[in-house]
Amino acid sequence: MDFSWTEEQNIFRKTVRNFAQKKIKPRVREIDTNKKIPEEIIKEMAKLGLLAPTASQDYGGAAVDWTMAAIAAEELGRADISLAIPVLYLVEAAWGFIFDQYGTEEAKKKYLPKICSGENFCGIAVTEPEGGSDIVGAGKLKAEKKGSNWLLNGEKIFISGITESSKWGGVHLTLARTNPSKAHKGFSFFAVPLKDSKNIETTLFEDMGRMGISTGGFTMNNTELTGDLLIGEQDRGFYYAMEGFSAARVLIGATCVGAAEAALELGIEHIKNRKAFGRPLASFEGIQFPLADHHSNIDAVKLQTYRAAWTMDQMYENKKATHNDVAIAAAISKLRAPVYAFQVMNEVADWFGALGYTKEYPVEMGIRGVRSYSIGAEGTMNIMRIIIARELLGKEFLPYK
Question: Where among 195, 216, 231 does a domain terminate?
Fold first, then answer.
């Protein structure tokens, strides 16, 4: 076992941290208020290779491994406690990778370089009005063959990046049913461009947090896609989606670690300087004990998250781990990271007292933002528990069979 970082990883962390602390952190309130990530930040992220960084260099990516990808996610979460920029980052890192792995050469050449340069957006569209956690049983968006093309009909909702994709261009990797008789083996993945596409209507929701990136949905009515927009093999889409979700869950874990550590640091500075009854708040055991618990929880989930990232590297680079190994490791990180991060932020808000309920400090942005990760982004908490139990007990004990 070796818990140290390599020289390359240390340099990478320092580079991302310097950028994020200098360029992103001072503008987080502005991003949250204006509900938009400034264009200059997008461009600078592109210059540093932080947009779809896991994509190959052939298409403009940085080809970083998953440990490095997690380091960047942690540092972006530390700087943007509202979690808007981290959402943009992790969505493109996870799904840009899947697009790079399984997309057609024609589609990748058209979209991936622009995704990596910040000109286009890459997102994921799986959730439907009646099919969130139960997408296999309730997913209704259908794709039917029309010559060499495809006709898609149905709706996706609670999708990140609707405005960004509609304005910038790019694709959402969209799960559609292509063989209704085959359950999860009857789904295919498509790269769906929202901008300037016929027969696609978009809608927007106003989230309570992570305001800098949009959330909404789109409806497809006989939307025709060319054959090159099919991702990978027909009827294998469910497997590609699950692979992408594992990647996204690891990056969510890292994002939560960074944001939680930032909140805890803010709280520690406050309790050292704020006095009550003639003593610093930090001298009271009622403050010290929760601090010790929260630090320990975040330290634990940090180890779990980087173990998951390491497991992914073992699978993709060394072929020494399986998708099942990755799935359980990623689910463990996703199960704990958002919950512990929320608890940290809630505690820190208590330490600030009335100030914690104002917008004078960024803690409230973190509370609003991190909550999305436990409610449903990349899978609810109970879905994580089902994944973990499935790997421990075997698929014959799945509750939905």
Answer: 231
Q: Which of 312, 301, 313 is nearest to 256 (CA)?
A: 301
Residue 154 has φ and ψ, to the nearest 5°, of 145, -170
Tokens of 355: 């100030």
Question: What type of residue sits at position 314?
Answer: Q
- pLDDT digit string (tens) for 278-287? 999 999 999 9
Note the pLDDT tens digit of each residue in 368-401: 999 999 988 888 999 999 999 999 999 899 887 6
Structural tokens at position 326: 């990755």
Assess if residue 382 is contained within a domain. Answer: yes
Distance CA 341, CA 321 (A): 28
CATH code: domain of residue 75: 1.10.540.10
- 8 A C-beta contact, residue 210 and residue 164: no
The per-residue pLDDT for 386 is 94
Residue 36 token pair:
């938009």
Residue 164 contacts by C-beta under 8 Å, 6 or more apart in sequence?
88, 121, 123, 170, 213, 214
Give yes or no for a contact between 12 and 72, defined as CB atoms under 8 angstroms apart: yes
